[in-house]
Amino acid sequence: MSHSAHEDSGQSPFIAHHYDNARHQFEAGKLGIWLFLVTEILFFSGLFVAYIIYRYHHPEMFEYANRYLSVKAGAINTCVLIISSLTAAWAVRAAQLRQRKTLITCLAITVVCAFAFLGIKAKEYAHKFHMGTYWGEDFDPCETPDLTPIDCAERHEGHEAAAGKAEATAAADTTAKPGAEAAAGTGEAAATAKPGEVKLPDRVAAGVPPHTSYFFSLYFGMTGLHGIHVLIGAGVFIWLLIRAIKGHFSPDYFGPVEYAALYWHLVDIIWIFLFPLLYLI
Amino acid sequence: VVFIFVFGWQGYMHLKATPAHAHEIYVEAHQWKWGFRYENGYEDDVLHVPVNEPVRLVMKSSDVLHSFFVPAFRVKQDVIPGRYTDIWFEATEAGTYRLYCAEYCGTDHSQMKTFVKVHEAGGFEKYLDEGLAKMMNLPPVELGKLLYEKKGCKQCHSIDGSSGKGPTWKGIFGQTHTMTDGSQVLVDENYIRESILNSTAKVRSGFNPIMPVFQGKINDRGVQGLIAYIKSLK
Amino acid sequence: MSTFAPGPSFFRASHGLRSWLFTLDHKRIGLMYLCGIIIAFLLGGLFALGIRVELFFPGETIVGPDTYNRMFTLHGAIMVFLVIIPGLPAALGNFILPMQLGAPDVAFPRINLTSLYLWYIGAALLLVSLFSGNAVDTGWTFYTPYSLNSPASVIPVVAGVFILGFSSIFTGLNFITTVHKFRHPKMTWFKMPLNVWALYATAVIQVLATPVLGITLLLLLAERIMGIGIFDPTLGGDPVLFQHFFWFYSHPAVYIMILPAMGVISELVTTFSHKPIFGYRFIAYSSIGLALLSFLVWGHHMFVSGQSPLATMIFSALTFTVAIPSAIKVFNWVATLYKGAITFQTPMLYTLAFILLFTIGGLTGITLGALSVDVHLHDTYYVVAHFHYVMMGSGLIAFLAGLHYWWPKITGRMYHEKTGQICAILVFIGFNLTFLPQFVLGARGMARRYWDYDPRFETLHQLSTTGAVILGFSLLVGFINLVVSLKRGRKAPANPWGATTLEWEAPSPPPLYNFTAPPELPPIYDYTNLVYDPDEGGYIRRPAQATDTSAAGGEGPGSSPAGEPSRS
Amino acid sequence: MEAHPETNHGDDHGHGFAHVASVKSLILTWGTLMCLTGLTVYASTIHFGSNSMNLLVAMAIAIVKGTLVIVFFMHMRHEKPFHVIIIAAGILFAVLFVSIGLIDTGQYQDDVVWGSYDPGAQPTTSTTP
Ligand code: HEA
Ligand code: HEA
Ligand code: CUA
Ligand SMILES: [Cu+2]
């Protein structure tokens, strides 16, 4: 937009023409961002509603399933986010006080933390996929939370591929069926295992409650959406970092830092709730 | 306004409070057909009820949402997959009334209609007993034909050789078909049984795996009847 | 009288395609919305005609059941998400709101432009399935599990609506901020035009409700693509939960449609009665009241869905409470009309139609809110008639009223008044002929979303179709009349109707940035000083009071001057 | 220092139009948050009588943490009352959404055949074909 300065007032060049002054712009932006945060709260509320409703009706399943998750990874991620929240808040202060070095450092740390968070999350996801703890229909774990191996489709696939059977895929398909039936709680699950195979206890026998898949649907839904927000946040902070290096911010014009920080805190708060709900209890 | 609310609410509570001695009829809705099963086990695609006696419907859907709607009785209730919903009513006049599906359920939503037959006193029980007896004593081929019409096979399978949503039944017995995974399968008794009870296990190429699973909905005698019927279609 | 930004009108302020595509001017953005929305409306109307023609005879008239299902789904989705929700706020509101506040623009012009693009992207996604030969057939409500099983291309449509939701959120956010931060310095809350109040209340709903639509659709997408199982009964999900999610948004959404309509009507009623509005504060408060109450009644769409009796009862009771603020408005409008010096120009004819049709639509809504009645009427043509009375008969008619009212301001041209009046009357007749029979149909048990029907309903359906043709014809002529005025119309004066709100103080069409310094604030809804000037062809303000500082250049008191205005 | 009501909270040489948070308050908040994180992890390892008790404890801690972030990091303490109202409204509506949803689903839950629902299941087994 208008990059030609308002020389007369000595204002920051980033005040759009239709604002009376810097303060006016800042306050409008602030109101805007708060409203946006409200929409974010309501956006996430849908997932929380789903979580609460299913948890309320099936507490035992949630209590069981959360043991699949790594508390350590969750806790580290919580700390990472809290650190980044601190630096984000500090960045605002630095911008307000024209402390350029501090500002750049704080923003940089925030970005690093954001990526650290995402990295840890990615590792967790990779592990989940490896274990077969997918969402919904595909949920087919190869272990209980106590690491007892259980019968799962992936094992079949591996086994059969080794045996060089021709209809490997077809067989995997049919063996996936009993898995689905186990989910139905009909009990007569993977008894159809091919002869000559090492008999592992199936999911029901190993005590995995029916519909543990549900927990993972919610887990992936909630953390996934949260992850996307972290990713967006990271992008915004990189942009701020570049602008900070260019020296755009001043006590007259630090709105973007403040808005981004507010957003970031909200993302942090959501994680503060997700962490105990999913990992701990 | 308060008055309207109270009025509406009372009417509603009346609808929800089922009398204790109501006849129970089990309703199953699927795309795009109604099925009714009576206390004695007889099944039909028309709803039969006695006059002046309360009837309670226990309803379930096997695919998407449907809604049981008889305008003449002012009753409506959605039918939901994975859950039972119920409703009751008492017909006060013998006769035949229209029954619709009021919740949008796909292509033939507007064709998902049938009738309610309200029997004179005594007629209801008699009809059920006779119906059951008839069904039990039918020779297999006849039974298969009946099921073909009443269980909804007719919607997808023709008996004249033309392909609909599913393959025709005419002359398939003994043929060899290619499945979507490329394998060849001979259409024999076993394959037909499997196709009926768990249709998606083997899907014939050129068709979509849309056929409902009939496991638990058609018993052994029924399956045999259907096999006999398919065999008979040369 | 007031201070306008110097320079040419906003049309001429800059040239070239780029100057439109990257404009930040709220008027240009509003205009681009308007074009898109009118095209969408004609398309939606075309589908409506398709529906009506198909229903002319039982059985197949022109298309088969699958095509029919796609037509009503697209008709519903286009009309709701593309036309009526953005119609009044984003198109007309965008144009008018800043001017009514005496502001140069909305608070966040760039976000405003983003909303516009989101609208076009969303619209494209929604319509793309039209050409894939596999258009959606789920109904505009996307109920699970059908929306999960349906072979149609549900995904792009749901994604499109999701994006449209964001467009709507951003508009709402922008408007709230604009109202808070860009009011004329002397304009206190209770000096704001009622249209602003209504848009403000609408924006509150947009911000609070639309995110829930977002998450609902996101979950639906996740369900369909990945099978996460929250709404899918075969995976243990709960389809009724989807309905809760959906209506938590969509009931408030119906007030997104009607509130700005009420705002427009509040303006028009007083302007054309040339009489101050009756019960200003009541109308203002009832807008906010409606906005808040609208969140408490969503369950009335689910009375027979398998919702629990307790929830059903609560929702029924709450549904009646929303009648109160609506009733307040209707009474105040009627009181304003009473003994007013009413002139029956085109916008006024639409306004009167609105009041009548909204009353009918609202009262039938109340009957639907009564539990035992709804059990019978739910998902019948009675409901179809109800919501067309409130959406087409009220929402869209108010849009037409507003369009005719502000047309001179927007384009600087007057349309042909007689043609406009005739069209307005024909629209009213055609509309009633279309939808009155549908109440009867519904009460007799004609279920909705039916491609086929029993022969006993035939006559009523044929009446309805005839009405739709009249309606479509008169609407088409109405639009042509407006388009023709662009070339042929007489130049519009600044204030053709004798209205008192700020936008009429600017020339028609207004210049870029509307006002340099805040213009003088005329007393709102005070018609005493407005006189008709035949030379001007419009109304001018009689300089009656000594305090009325004379023409141009009066510096706005209070606030510091803004930067140089016209530089772009 | 300007005498805007928002800035007269007196640490630092506030300039401009918004509250400047002091380093002390930031670090303190941060420290508390970290401790609370540790606490909630620890709390989840002990059993407070019932699982819902544990849930309650964890949620209580989370609420405290969330509030800390809002009040200090987001300087809600120095915000305009209107902004506080907005956020409160947002939370209120979210709660409303949850509670009505819960009331309703709670009522009909008994009828639900929960879980990967088997279309073949019937209340009584089919006796006729
Ligand atoms: C602009 C949109 C709009 C508006 C404003 C309304 C307004 C209202 N609606 Fe409507 N409604 C829809 C759009 C709208 N509706 C849509 C789209 C559907 C169907 C969706 C679908 O399924 O596809 C629907 C469906 C719908 C249903 C569900 C029907 C069913 O599916 O079974 C119900 C039930 O309660 C209902 C009720 C109401 C009520 C009580 C109002 C009230 O707000 C009305 C208040 C107004 C008045 C009451 C009139 C003015 C007052 C007076 C003149 C004073 C005197 C009156 C009294 C004192 C009572 N509506
Ligand atoms: C704003 C909302 C809105 C509006 C304005 C309308 C307008 C109309 N609607 Fe619509 N309708 C809905 C919203 C709306 N509708 C919704 C939400 C549904 C539910 C969908 C669902 O069940 O999922 C519905 C469903 C619906 C049905 C029920 C279908 C069914 O259940 O089977 C019917 C049937 O009569 C109908 C008819 C009409 C008619 C005749 C108009 C008329 O008023 C239309 C008049 C306009 C025109 C006729 C256009 C004029 C222009 C031309 C003729 C020229 C065209 C030229 C070019 C494109 C160059 N609508
Ligand atoms: Cu079944 Cu509609
Ligand atoms: Cu509603």
Jot down its keywords.
heterotetramer, B: alpha+beta, 5-stranded mixed beta sheet, D: 129 residues, mainly alpha, flat, disordered N terminus, disordered C terminus, binds heme-A, binds copper (II) ion
Written overview of the protein:
- The complex is a heterotetramer of chains A (281), B (234), C (568) and D (129).
- Chain A contains eight helices and no strands.
- Chain A has helices spanning 22-57, 59-65, 71-96, 100-131, 153-163, 168-183, 212-245, 255-280.
- The two termini of chain A are 50 Å apart.
- The relative contact order of chain A is 0.17.
- Chain B has helices spanning 2-16, 123-137, 140-150, 189-197, 220-232; strands at residues 23-30, 33-37, 43-44, 47-50, 54-61, 66-70, 75-79, 85-90, 95-101, 114-119, 176-178, 184-186.
- In chain B, helix 3 crosses helix 5.
- In chain B, 27% of the residues lie in helices and 26% in strands.
- In chain B, the strands form three sheets. Chain B has a five-stranded mixed sheet with strand order 3-2-1-5-8, with no helix packed on it.
- Chain C is an all-alpha fold.
- Chain C has 16 helices and four strands.
- The two termini of chain C are 26 Å apart.
- Chain D is 57% helix and 0% strand.
- Chain D is built from three helices and no strands.
- The termini of chain D are far apart.
- At the A-D interface, helix 1, helix 3 and helix 8 of A face helix 1, helix 2 and helix 3 of D.
- The structure holds heme-A (2 copies), dinuclear copper ion and copper (II) ion.
- One heme-A is lined by residues 42-43, 45-46, 48-49, 51-52, 72-73, 75-76, 79-80, 83-84, 139-140, 384, 388, 391-392, 395-396, 434, 448-450, 468, 471-472, 475-476 of chain C.
What's the total count of β strands of chain C? Answer: 4
Query: Structural class, judged by helices and strands of chain A?
Result: mainly alpha
Basic shape of chain C: globular
Order of helices and strands of chain A: HHHHHHHH
Give the total of beta strands of chain A.
Answer: 0
Characterize the biggest β-sheet of chain A. none
Q: Indicate the multimeric state.
A: heterotetramer
Helix content of chain A: 55-70%
Radius of gyration of chain A: 25 Å
> Number of helical runs of chain A?
8
Q: What is the overall shape of chain A?
A: elongated
Q: What's the overall average pLDDT of chain A, rounded? A: 72
- Unreliable parts of chain C: 1-5, 545-568
Give a summary of the structure in a few sentences.
The complex is a heterotetramer of chains A (281), B (234), C (568) and D (129). With 281 residues, chain A is mainly alpha-helical. Chain A contains eight helices and no strands.
